[in-house]
Specification:
- This protein has about 400 residues and is α/β, with parallel strands linked by helices.
- It is about 25% helix and about 30% strand.
- The strands form five sheets. The protein has a 13-stranded mixed sheet, with helices on both faces. The chain has a three-stranded mixed sheet with strand order 20-21-22, with helices on one face.
- Helix 2 crosses helix 3.
Length: about 400
């Protein structure tokens, strides 16, 4: 059965494949390390089909992933911050890999993929994202994040290279982007927007910027364009269960950050009673289409999809429906606020909305909260206003960089 290890073996051995924080590896070196990992796994003679992989460094994650496939096992990269491992049930016969997702309940579950469910889409996504065999893509973070793993494999499918960063250090990211003349940058919007603070002069080599998993509007895109004047920007909407769903180019972005564009080729999207349904041939095993992620949205007359949050982002406050995503968006539209999280909490025996925010370029003062509420009252109804707004130094995020409401009690 074909897998990603076999795919990488077909590339030119002396061609650059990976640069991990200054250390270079060719395709031949990755294959050799993967073979050695696979040999060690075979010696263990384990009857387990699925192998949990919890590694800290990107190189170790990659080699473990490929080594499992070399040994005929199914790799499952586990986030370093995972508190609970999922149970392994029946494994589909044609699966070559597995990914872990928390799902809407927070209980980890395993999703299985065939090689073709990703590989058959690589030519489509590479063309839209501007990836060529000569590309060098900068990316940061764990391969347990499906977005990273997918783009690594798509690069490797055509013999391109990845410039990888383990550390969360935007100044060093900027240095590596320039030093290795990367032409593609892939980061979630939150991480991308640290780069304008670190780059002092425009970087001409970057031609394409990719972002997903979070919203982004025209104002954020313009900040990036000042740093990367030759770059086109693509924002995508996708899911581990379904792969890529829709995408939006920079010239189509507006101040409405929830627009996520039109479907990728071969993908169909519909909205029924405010709920998004997707039909795609690139889904994980066991998914029946049309499939709903329990995401809410609407479409405009031009066929653009707007992401209105998840079903669990809508809470009932004193009998009225309140969107936590809308409150977060209103807070983040305030110029001196960096990030915001809104959540439903128990207050005096009833459910209320509280908010947590970070500041950018401002010091905490007695006037901050007054200014925040003055801004919010311009865009939110009275029943949507959070009963309190706490200013904190930083907000919790998952390993992939997404906001994490589940650990707000630790803020």
């Amino acid at each position: 059965m074909r897998n990603f290890y076999e795919m990488i073996r077909e590339q030119e051995a002396d061609r650059l494949a990976l640069v991990e924080e200054g250390k270079e590896y060719t395709y031949g070196e990755l294959v050799k390390l993967s073979q050695e990992k696979g040999d060690r796994l075979r010696l263990e003679k384990s009857e387990k089909k699925v192998i949990f992989l919890r590694e800290k460094r990107i190189l170790d994650q990659l080699i473990s992933f490929l080594g499992c496939q070399a040994a005929g096992k199914i790799p499952l990269l586990v986030p370093e911050d995972a508190k609970q491992l999922p149970e392994i049930g029946e494994v589909p016969e044609n699966a070559c890999m597995a990914v872990m997702t928390s799902g809407s309940t927070g209980v980890p579950k395993v999703l299985y993929r065939r090689y073709e469910s990703w590989a058959d889409f690589f030519p489509v996504q590479n063309e839209i994202f501007g990836v060529t065999p000569e590309s060098r893509m900068f990316a940061q973070g764990s391969l347990a994040f499906t977005g990273n793993l997918n783009l690594y494999m798509a690069q490797f499918s055509i013999g391109a290279a990845i410039v990888a960063a383990n550390v969360f250090d935007p100044r060093r990211w900027a240095e590596w982007i320039e030093a290795y003349k990367t032409d593609v940058v892939y980061l979630i919007p939150r991480k991308l927007l640290f780069l304008p603070q670190c780059i002092k002069k425009p970087v001409a080599t970057v031609r394409h910027i990719l972002a997903g998993s979070q919203s982004m509007g025209s104002e954020e895109a313009e900040k990036l364009r000042r740093c990367f004047p030759n770059a086109g920007i693509v924002l995508y909407y996708g899911a581990s269960e379904l792969n890529y769903i829709t995408y939006l180019r920079q010239d189509q972005m507006t101040r409405e950050k929830n627009c996520v564009g039109k479907p990728f080729p071969g993908v169909q999207v519909s909205v029924e009673d405010g709920e998004i349904f997707v039909t795609t041939p690139y889904n994980v095993e066991g998914v029946l289409c049309p499939f709903s992620l329990k995401d809410l949205g609407h479409m405009d007359a031009a066929g653009n999809l707007y992401f209105d949050g998840r079903k669990d982002d809508i809470v009932s406050i004193r009998g009225r429906k309140v969107s936590l995503l809308k409150i977060e968006g209103a807070l983040e539209d305030i110029p001196f606020i960096g990030e915001a999280i809104a959540a439903a909490v128990e207050k005096e025996g009833e459910k209320r909305v509280a908010a947590w925010v970070t500041l950018c370029g401002s010091e905490v003062s007695a006037e901050c909260e007054k200014q925040i509420y003055a801004h919010l009252k311009q865009t939110l109804a009275n029943y949507e206003l959070p009963f309190c707004c706490k200013i904190v130094e930083k907000l919790p995020h998952t390993e992939s960089g997404k906001k994490d409401r589940k650990v707000l009690d630790k803020v």
